[in-house]
Amino acid sequence: MRGLRRILTTRGAAFAGCGLVLVASGILLGQTDVTRAGVLLLALVAVSLVLARRHGLSLVVERSVIPSRIAVDERATVTVRVRNVESSPTPVLLAEEALDYALGDRPRFVLGSLRPGASTEVGYTVRSHTRGVHRLGPLRLRMRDPFGLTLRGASLAGDGEVVVLPRVVPLESGRSLGSGIGSEGTIPHMVALHGEDDQTIREYRDGDDLRRIHWPATARTGDLMVRQEDRPAKRRAVVLVDSREVGHGGGGRSGSLEWTVTTAASVLTHLDRAAHAVHLVTADPASDRGVRHDDTVEGSLDALARVRLEGPDVMRGVLHDSQSLTASGGLLVYVGGPLSDDDARTLAALRQPGSSGVALVVDPARFGRRDGAGPAAEATAATLRGSGWLTTVVDARTSPAQAWGTVVGGSAVGAAS
């Protein structure tokens, strides 16, 4: 617990001031009764301070959030458990939970007196209209003395968080997403779900199709052996997200960064449902490499919830770390702002022959450019288009579904070579 703050309330300050005036006046005027009245007021203030001092506040707070990850505009229930670890009962306390502004008004509640070792629980709900990692706590307490002359405040150490995932919108499938890059399981970027082998041999079981008997293995082992069903495979899809401040414009929910995050979340979810093995690569200055790589939808959405504007050089790390993921082909999707000529050429080279590249390039100037001019969106799109990418430039009026539909709606993703 942080240091306690003891202050006089307005009433307490008035009592103390009046007491001093009455004592001084009584002494100067020789009025004993006036002096006694002043002494009484000062004594009440002193007693209140002593009573406040007698009550120790040694409390432990714990929080649970269910669910800990929610979508935009969904609700989560927060339970706050307060336990008294002091050797004496606590007084009645007024409590206020500090919240990030995006979660709404701060909840206030009254904590009744707690015996030593006792605990109590209070709950409230939160909802956010914006994605992100929002903080819960600390819990701020206030305690008044019986006369209302003093107010003591404290903040209980410990906080929590609720992760608000980005919004996901449905996207158009296109005529043949991922066609033109081979059948599943036939090229290196097909990722087996249960291992690298597409076929295994096992002992015969009742009901197995006799046409699946593997005669060489049967002759070698002396037991009937059959070919295992081919394991399912998924095409690889790598999504790159640009979080450079120079590559974005506007602010808040209408800014291009939020458009980028929403679109990336929607693309990842859409491709996962279309039987792709999805990978997300984003900048993460907090990590050792400055890059974060997620290979599940759940992890990717969590990473996107934490995306924020970064410095001008973070995209180079993203492009560098993506080389190992794209070397064997697969669908490559870029969502972000315009790039420098060198970075645009590096990104263009990540698309392997026979694979597909899709670029949704946001135009910061049409979202409300931030300070500092950057490269033009059309130039980046032209560089990528010249290398066989399917590209479109978007502005604040373009929805993620419209942008995706423009690229894949009329043409099968993967037709480029």
From TrEMBL:
Keywords assigned by UniProt, alphabetized: Membrane, Transmembrane, Transmembrane helix
Transmembrane segments: 12-29, 35-52
Domain DUF58: 201-282
Protein name: DUF58 domain-containing protein
Protein's organism: Phycicoccus avicenniae
Biological classification of the source: Bacteria, Bacillati, Actinomycetota, Actinomycetes, Micrococcales
